[in-house]
Amino acid sequence: MAVTRNTVQKDIILAAVKAMNNHPTAEAVYNEVAVMHPNISKATVYRNLNRMADEGMISRLHTPQGADFYDLCTDEHYHMKCERCEKIFDLPLEYQYGLCGKLSQQTNFELHRHSLMFFGLCPECKII
Fold it and tell me: What value does the mean pLDDT take over residues 68-87?
């Protein structure tokens, strides 16, 4: 069976996300991929990142008033975002699996999932 162009592009994009290992934006992934593969389009990178997120290969992190970030870790976990450099970091806090159920009982709202993002200054930006 021949490998389709789409699979090759997906593999290239996923390899770039793995190499970056830092919750990159689609723009950052495109910039990384374009160095070695200048013929790949920005639309291809965006489309493949979104497809991989939809398929559960990576996670898409929505941030208020900003670009989406992508995460190799698909386990439920929380994040911190630096308000100066805008980098995203994993938060070492145990995921609260029962929180949705507890809040559903209290509010009668049908909750399916939750995410938390904390905002502040990372150690590098804090000393600037």
Answer: 94
Residue whose token pair is 């689609």: 26
Q: Where are the alpha helices (DSSP H) in the chain?
A: 5-20, 26-36, 42-54, 99-107, 123-126
What is the number of other CB atoms lying within 10 angstroms of the CB of residue 80?
A: 18
Please give the average per-residue pLDDT across 44-73, as a whole number: 93
User: CA angle at residue 21 from 2 to 65, to 5 degrees?
Assistant: 105
The domains of the chain, with CATH numbers, are 5-71 (1.10.10.10), 78-126 (3.30.1490.190)
Measured distance CA(40)–CA(33) in Å, rounded: 8
Of residues 30, 50, 31, 125, the one with CA closest to residue 86: 125
Label residue 3 by pLDDT band (50, 70, 90). Answer: very low
pTM of the model: 0.83
Q: Binning pLDDT at 50, 70 and 90, where does residue 6 land?
A: low
Give the separation between CA 77 and CA 58, rounded to whole angstroms: 13
**Which element (helix H / strand E) includes 89?**
strand 88-91
